[in-house]
Amino acid sequence: MPHRIPTRRRPRPHDPRPSTHHRCYTRAWEKASRAYRRAHPLCAECARQGISTAAALVDHIIPHKGDPVLFWDQDNWQSLCINCHNAKTARENHPPPPPAPPDQAPTP
């Protein structure tokens, strides 16, 4: 009988945000987002680039940051594939640094 090598889970970094439920992600959201994806089955970002990709989730165009009015505003929703959502979230959470002042710019 082969022996299993125990695996260790990496500890997850502490997430300072409120729980998903407190950020409005409830059963009502699951139902509304499913209905939205049925009506908008393709990734909006891929479609802007002329590519047809199935959407996997509903994204808030402007991050709601807990504001229930912005959260439920369907004009602020878009269907996205996982890749586009991850890229958008990374841009929002980690914006590029500002350009260096001209006197500190590298010379060619």
Topology:
Elements: H1 27-39, H2 44-48, E1 57-60, H3 68-72, E2 77-80, H4 82-93
Antiparallel strand pairs: 1-2
Helix-strand string: HHEHEH
Spatial gap, N to C terminus: 64 Å
Beta fraction of the residues?
5-15%
Computed CA radius of gyration, to the nearest angstrom? 20 Å
Q: Given the C-alpha coordinates, what overall shape results? A: extended
For the secondary structure, the number of strands is 2
Mean pLDDT: 84
Helix content: 25-40%
User: What's the oligomerization state?
Assistant: single chain
The biggest sheet, with number of strands, parallel, antiparallel or mixed sense and barrel status, is: 2 strands, antiparallel
Q: What is the helix tally?
A: 4
Low-confidence stretches: none
Structural class: mainly alpha
Looking across the biggest beta sheet, what order are the strands in?
A: 1-2
Keywords:
single chain, 108 residues, mainly alpha, two-stranded antiparallel sheet, 32% helix, extended
Describe the model:
- This protein has 108 residues and is mostly helical.
- It has a domain at 27-93.
- Helices cover 32% and strands 7% of the residues.
- A two-stranded antiparallel sheet has the order 1-2.
Could you give a quick summary of the protein structure above?
The protein has about 110 residues and is mainly alpha-helical. It has helices spanning about 25-40, 45-50, 70, 80-95, and strands at about 55-60, 75-80.
